[in-house]
Design goal:
alpha/beta, Spore Coat Polysaccharide Biosynthesis Protein SpsA, Chain A, five-stranded mixed beta sheet, three-stranded mixed beta sheet, 6 helices
C-alpha cells in the first residue's frame, strides 16, 4: 500500500492558460460570457479553484488581453496576470508561468493547469484529482471522461523542472513534450483518473450558435 501523503510537503498553485488566438471562437475566450452564467470564462475558472485554497493563481495571457483579464480578478487576492506572445502552444504557456510561480510561491510542489475555455468542472472532480495526486505526488494526474483525456492537469514541480528547457523551445502542446520525455525515460508517465464529469472535456472551441 502506498504511504500516506504528507500534506505539509505540498504547496499547490493554479495556472490558467489563455493566450490562444481563439480564431474558431471569434474573439477572446477569457472575456466571453456563455451559457446561463453571467461571469466571463476567466472568472468562472478562477472562482472554481478559489475554494481549494491553492494560491497563487497565475493567469498567462497576451499583452492585449492582460488589462481586461486583470480587471476581472482585481478584487481577488493572490492572483497574478502575466503575459506572453499569443499562440496556442501550451508548452510555452507553462514556461511563461514558471518564473512567476518561482517568485510568488517559492517551493511550490504542484501546479493545476487549467485552460480558460474549460469552465464547467465540478468541485467534486477537483477533490477526486487531489486525492489521487496526494497518493501519487510524483506523477502528472489528469481526469478522463468516457475514454477522453480532460482538464485540469495536476503537474508536479519536479516533472515541470525536468522538462522546462523543452517547454521553453517547443512550438506545440505540453502533451507532446511530456510524451517524448516519457518515451525517453526521463519522467514517469501520467495517470488518468476516470471521473463522472463530462465538464472535464467540454471546451469552448467555437461560440455557441
Amino acid at each position: 500500500m502506498a504511504a500516506a501523503p504528507d500534506p505539509a510537503s505540498r504547496r499547490d498553485v493554479v495556472v490558467v492558460m489563455c493566450r490562444g488566438e481563439s480564431r474558431r471562437f471569434g474573439g477572446p475566450k477569457a472575456l466571453a460570457v456563455l451559457d446561463d452564467d453571467p461571469r466571463p470564462l476567466l472568472r468562472r475558472v478562477v472562482d472554481l479553484h478559489a475554494g481549494t485554497g491553492y494560491a497563487p493563481v497565475v493567469i498567462v495571457t497576451t499583452g492585449e488581453l492582460a488589462p481586461g483579464c486583470a480587471a476581472l480578478v482585481a478584487n481577488l487576492p493572490d492572483v497574478r496576470v502575466t503575459t506572453a506572445p499569443g499562440g496556442g502552444d501550451t508548452a510555452r504557456t507553462l514556461a511563461a508561468a514558471w518564473d512567476v510561480l518561482a517568485e510568488l510561491a517559492p517551493g511550490w510542489s504542484h501546479a493545476w493547469l487549467h485552460p480558460v475555455d474549460v469552465p464547467t468542472i465540478s468541485a467534486a472532480t477537483l477533490a477526486q484529482l487531489a486525492v489521487v495526486s496526494g497518493l501519487m505526488p510524483d506523477r502528472q494526474v489528469r481526469p478522463g471522461w468516457n475514454g477522453r483525456p480532460g482538464h485540469p492537469v495536476v503537474l508536479p514541480a519536479r516533472v515541470f523542472a525536468e522538462l522546462l528547457a523543452d517547454a521553453r523551445t517547443s512550438p506545440g502542446p505540453w502533451r507532446v513534450v511530456l510524451e517524448g520525455a516519457v518515451r525517453a525515460g526521463r519522467v514517469p508517465g501520467p495517470v488518468t483518473v476516470a471521473v463522472a464529469d463530462p465538464g472535464v472535456v467540454l471546451d469552448h472551441d467555437v461560440r455557441p450558435a
